[in-house]
């Protein structure tokens, strides 16, 4: 393979925005956009990484919490932009990922779509290929992971498949870079000569096909302006796609009514909803193509399958799940703690000053802006990087799905399914990546429930506060008691939220991918790209907000606030007035609670606070509001309303639990 | 056709009890039935012999009793009515849990098929009874619930009834194979299943069932999927014997 010599990652100059209106395509242009589309876990991101190297930007699709990865490469003198679309199985269940993908393909019109297909699961992957083909996009099919398929005894005849589909088919092993040069050659060729894709229509059974054509003709007659191919729209109308139906309704209700009648006719014939009929027929076509192109010798039991048996064994399975989850946690904690300490030592000179002494400007710049940078560097990064790295490895290996499989029934207790376990546990390290990783869940409701519960998880910063205040000044046992209270609160609130947040729990439907050895370089690249995008979000907020609060404090705005809060802090929670200010600082960064207390009261805290006050202060600061970084990530993932609701419920919980605890503990101490 | 004949309430109770105890496939002992129904072993044996003559069960003194296909079909029909009625008494009439069983037992024998279908629509094709047992699928020849809801009463007769016994994939044993014949539930679930390849008529086999009422791992169209119990109890298959 000499692909390395011709495929060169190119330095990108700036982040590309959305190209809303493209020039009409010229024959030989130098800038090509390629979109990668396909099922999840077919090696799409590996291919993306192999093609673009480190030249990638990972962010979100505008207004959606769907990851958007874009990269660049130089291939035979062409500037190529590669967009990695989210992994999806169909264009029909209208999840965010599917809508993002289909709108991108229809409206942004990439020059060519590379449909990445898992060679071992050809039939199911071709189901998606057929839908892409129906969208009439210039495309190339990339049969990936042919080595894994070969191990299972599956060999694919790419020529036959290419003839059947009417598009070029290239076999690759992306993880080893094999076949990528040919893939790019074919892809650029198609990009320049779109007509090379044959317009073969994949025909459905007669009773469906007739009706598709009738609707297509009516749309043509009405001359609707849609942006999607007519035939595709006709099929979507028969499938009762609500988005497309709404789109057409605004232009011609006649077409919608006609297609509705047609769908009813199909339903009468088959005794099934028309979308089910169409899905079955599509699978029928996929099956024919797969059978025609695939030579399967005896199914061999591979090493991966043997491993699978152990990992989902009724006893070993749980042990391995516990090891994976515990290992990830331990790794994040230990490595994170190590680097966090190293960085803390490096920033040892950083101590918040008392702005009343040093003057307001110094307070804002030093405590605020610089403090924000230090907080980000010492607290978020050391935990986020090792976590992302390990998560990426576990995710790509396929172990994560087995853990979810084993833990599914336990997670049902709080209305989530197996997959939600991972983010929950990560919350113990740092809430920020934990909330971000709730994306692995299907519905917004599940993501929200998991994120809500995570905001109560005692992350490392909270642990510092508990240890620093309670373990040092009261006793270790009270510190442990606080941990236990926290876990009980998490569980109870999880159950309450389950009752309150409307909607049903979506059951688990998850593909069990073949085990494979994850590529470290892919994991490293993913980690780097994700960390980068996190820095862009978290750091500015940290710096600005931290400076703002310091400014308010320095100019004496916080003392009135503390006094205003006194009825709550003093009468209800039994804390000193100063606690109001300390807690507000704790909102920026949890262990600021401790630092501010020391700054304001001196190191001999035992002279200032009683044991009960230590416990209550630690308890309240632990529960009372997600820290600024967590709020930022909540905002990005769930929007204003949900973030405010979560923050408010945190505050209310902290006040209720704190007040009750104060009265109960007073009986003991 | 035999299922249109009216079985006596007593026979229905027996079939229902055997179905409930047998938990699919396993043989049921006479003593278990007598305990369940509160009838002496002697009269149970008597009745079982009668049921065998009617070809509803296979009975052997030592192994116990097992439902035949015909027996299973009738047992499921009664069980379905029983559990639907429990749902109705619980959800709509808001009766307390301890009344449900006895009341449903009384009503199940007189509930007509038409009323059963209407009940199923009102309750929005429920999948579990209040006690969390799976409600068996109906025997109308529909492939999904959506179709049944749209049809008028008189059209239903044209559709007819199926002869095969349907089993939810949740109740399949390891390595058993089936053909997907009916999917219960709303559009969203059906769509997700379809996209993943679980279409009507597709062949599906169980690879593994996770312990502690966890998900079921199935093989379909050359790929492996994990399906949660809540969904697995809504995908019904016709069992396919491996040696055929």
Note the main attributes of this structure.
heterodimer, A: 669 residues, alpha/beta, Rossmann fold, Helix Hairpins, eight-stranded mixed sheet, two-stranded antiparallel ribbon, 28 helices, 11 strands, B: 244 residues, alpha+beta, Arc Repressor Mutant, subunit A, SH3 type barrels, 2 domains, six-stranded antiparallel sheet, two-stranded antiparallel sheet
Can you describe what's shown?
- The complex is a heterodimer of chains A (669) and B (244).
- Chain A is built from 28 helices and eleven strands.
- By secondary structure, chain A is of the alpha/beta class.
- Chain A is elongated, with a radius of gyration of 28 Å.
- In chain B, the strands form two sheets. Chain B has a six-stranded antiparallel sheet. A two-stranded antiparallel sheet of chain B has the order 1-2.
- Chain B is globular, with a radius of gyration of 18 Å.
- The mean pLDDT of chain B is 83.
- Chain B folds into two domains: 1-136, Orthogonal Bundle (Arc Repressor Mutant, subunit A); 166-240, SH3 type barrels.
- Chain B has 244 residues and is of the alpha+beta class.
- In chain B, a hairpin with a 3-residue loop joins strand 1 (57-60) and strand 2 (64-67).
- Chain B has helices at residues 9-22, 30-37, 41-53, 69-91, 97-108, 113-122, 145-150, 153-159, 187-195, 229-232; strands spanning 57-60, 64-67, 166-168, 177-183, 203-209, 216-220, 223-227, 235-240.
- The interface between A and B is large, with 42 and 43 residues.
- Strand 11 of chain A pairs antiparallel with strand 7 (223-227) of chain B, so a sheet runs across the interface.
């Amino acid at each position: 393979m000499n692909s390395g010599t011709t495929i060169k990652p190119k330095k990108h100059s700036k982040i590309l925005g959305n190209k809303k209106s493209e020039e009409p395509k010229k024959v030989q242009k130098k800038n090509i956009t390629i979109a990668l589309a396909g099922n999840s876990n077919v090696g799409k991101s590996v291919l993306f990484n192999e093609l673009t190297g480190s030249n990638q930007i990972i962010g979100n699709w505008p207004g959606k919490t769907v990851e958007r990865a874009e990269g660049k490469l130089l291939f035979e003198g062409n500037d190529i932009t590669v967009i990695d679309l989210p992994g999806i199985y169909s264009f029909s269940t209208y999840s965010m990922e599917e809508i993002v993908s289909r709108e991108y393909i229809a409206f942004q019109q990439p020059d060519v779509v590379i449909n990445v297909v898992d060679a071992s699961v050809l039939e199911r992957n071709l189901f998606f290929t057929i839908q892409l083909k129906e969208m009439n996009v210039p495309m190339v099919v990339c049969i990936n992971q042919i080595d894994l398929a070969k191990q299972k005894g599956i060999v694919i005849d790419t020529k036959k498949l290419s003839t059947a589909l009417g598009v070029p088919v290239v076999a690759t092993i992306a993880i080893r870079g094999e076949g990528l040069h040919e893939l790019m050659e074919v892809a650029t060729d198609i990009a320049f000569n779109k007509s090379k894709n044959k317009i073969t229509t994949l025909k459905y059974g007669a009773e469906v096909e007739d009706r598709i054509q009738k609707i297509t003709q009516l749309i043509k007659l009405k001359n609707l302006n849609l942006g999607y191919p007519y035939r595709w729209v006709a099929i979507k109308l028969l499938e009762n796609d609500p988005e497309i139906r709404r789109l057409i309704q605004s232009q011609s209700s006649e077409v919608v009514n006609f297609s509705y009648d047609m769908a009813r006719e199909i339903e009468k014939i088959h005794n099934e909803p028309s979308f089910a009929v169409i899905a079955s027929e599509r699978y029928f076509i996929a099956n024919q193509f797969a059978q025609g192109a695939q030579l399967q010798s005896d199914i061999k039991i591979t090493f991966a399958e043997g491993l699978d048996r152990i990992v989902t064994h009724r006893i070993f399975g749980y042990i391995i799940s516990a090891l994976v989850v515990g290992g990830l946690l331990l790794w994040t904690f230990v490595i994170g703690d190590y680097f966090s300490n190293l960085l803390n030592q490096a920033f040892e000179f950083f101590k918040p000053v008392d702005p009343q002494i040093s003057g307001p400007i110094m307070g804002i710049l030093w405590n605020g802006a610089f403090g924000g940078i230090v907080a980000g560097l010492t607290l978020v990064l050391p935990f986020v990087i090792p976590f992302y790295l390990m998560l990426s490895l576990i995710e790509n290996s396929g172990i994560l799905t087995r853990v979810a499989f084993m833990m599914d029934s336990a997670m049902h207790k709080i209305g989530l399914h197996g997959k939600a376990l991972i983010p929950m546990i990560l919350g113990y390290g740092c809430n920020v990546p934990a909330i971000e990783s709730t994306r692995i869940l299907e519905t917004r409701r599940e993501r929200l429930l998991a994120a809500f519960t995570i905001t109560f998880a005692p992350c490392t910063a909270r642990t510092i506060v508990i240890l620093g205040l309670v373990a040092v000044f009261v006793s270790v046992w009270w510190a442990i008691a606080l941990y236990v209270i926290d876990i009980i609160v998490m569980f109870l609130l999880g159950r309450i939220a389950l009752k309150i947040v409307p909607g049903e729990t979506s059951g688990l439907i998850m593909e069990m991918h073949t085990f494979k050895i994850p590529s470290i370089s892919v994991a490293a690249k993913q980690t780097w790209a994700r960390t980068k995008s996190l820095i862009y979000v978290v750091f500015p907020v940290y710096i600005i907000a931290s400076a703002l609060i310091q400014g308010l404090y320095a100019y004496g705005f916080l003392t009135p606030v503390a006094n205003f809060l006194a009825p709550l802090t003093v009468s209800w929670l039994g804390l000193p007035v100063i606690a109001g200010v300390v807690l507000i600082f704790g909102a920026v960064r949890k262990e600021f609670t401790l630092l501010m207390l020391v700054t304001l009261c001196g190191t001999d805290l035992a002279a200032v606070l009683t044991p009960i006050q230590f416990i209550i202060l630690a308890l309240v600061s632990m529960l009372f509001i997600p820290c600024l970084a967590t709020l930022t990530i909540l905002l990005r993932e769930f929007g204003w309303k949900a973030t405010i609701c979560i923050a408010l419920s945190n505050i209310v919980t902290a006040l209720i639990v704190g007040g009750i605890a104060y009265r109960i503990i007073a009986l003991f101490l | 056709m035999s299922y249109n004949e009216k079985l006596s309430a007593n026979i229905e109770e027996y079939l229902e009890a055997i179905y409930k105890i047998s938990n699919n496939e396993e043989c049921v002992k006479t003593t278990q039935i007598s305990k369940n129904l509160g009838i002496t072993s002697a009269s149970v044996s008597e009745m079982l012999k009668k049921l065998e003559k009617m070809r509803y069960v296979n009975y052997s003194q030592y192994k116990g009793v097992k439902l035949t296909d015909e027996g299973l079909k009738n047992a499921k029909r009664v069980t379905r009515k029983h559990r639907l009625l429990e749902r109705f008494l619980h959800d709509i009439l808001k009766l307390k849990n301890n009344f449900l069983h006895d009341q449903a037992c009384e009503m199940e024998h007189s509930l007509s098929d038409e009323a059963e279908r209407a009940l199923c629509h009102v309750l929005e094709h429920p999948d579990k009874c209040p006690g969390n047992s799976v409600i068996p699928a109906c025997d109308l020849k529909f492939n999904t619930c959506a179709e049944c809801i749209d049809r008028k009463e008189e059209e239903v007769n044209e559709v007819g009834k199926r002869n095969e016994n349907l089993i939810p994939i949740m109740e399949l044993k390891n390595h058993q194979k089936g053909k997907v014949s009916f999917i219960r539930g709303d559009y969203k679930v059906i769509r997700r299943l379809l996209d993943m390849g679980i279409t009507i008529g597709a062949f599906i086999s169980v690879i593994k069932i996770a312990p502690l009422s966890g998900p079921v791992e199935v093989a379909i169209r050359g790929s492996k999927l994990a399906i949660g119990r809540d969904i697995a109890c809504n995908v019904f298959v016709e069992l396919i014997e491996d040696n055929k």
